[in-house]
Specification:
about 35% helix; alpha+beta; OB fold (Dihydrolipoamide Acetyltransferase, E2P); 2 domains; 5 strands; binds copper (II) ion; five-stranded mixed beta barrel; about 130 residues
Length: about 130
């Protein structure tokens, strides 16, 4: 047995008694993490890569400029900035509005901020306000 093998054997023998402790720690950690997340429910949403965290960017307002208002049709043509939640680059396009009353005070040239969703293939403005 050379020196390297001897050292390895010594280290290995010392580690063996520790193995049950390592397993215990591994088994305990998830339980601790779960109870920790439960105790801080509100913060847990940030850590979770699921729906609540993903929904936050969808709530961001997008900058746009009114090009055309169709009150009867409930439609508005907007030149808009990138809409990350819809995976859409900046462009000019027609949106349906959730509520025709949203169009009452709007005219071509107005700068707005809005939220839009993809409602079964129809891009729909759900919120709209004048930009200042
Ligand atoms: Cu668009």
């Amino acid at each position: 047995m050379n020196a390297a093998q001897k050292i390895f054997r010594t280290v290995a023998l010392r580690l063996v008694p520790l193995a049950p402790l390592v397993l215990l720690a591994a088994a305990t950690a998830p339980a601790w993490a779960a109870s920790h997340a439960g105790a801080h429910g509100a913060h847990g949403a940030h850590a979770a890569p699921g729906a609540p965290a993903a929904a936050a960017p969808a709530g961001e307002m997008t900058d746009g400029e009114v090009r055309k208002v169709d009150k009867d049709g409930g439609k508005i043509t907007l030149k808009h900035a990138e809409i990350k939640s819809l995976d859409m680059p900046a462009m000019t396009m027609v949106f349906v509005v959730k509520d025709k009353a949203m169009l009452d005070k709007l005219a071509a040239g107005d700068k707005v901020r809005f939220k839009a969703i993809n409602d079964a293939g129809k891009f729909t403005v759900t919120e709209l306000q004048m930009a200042r």
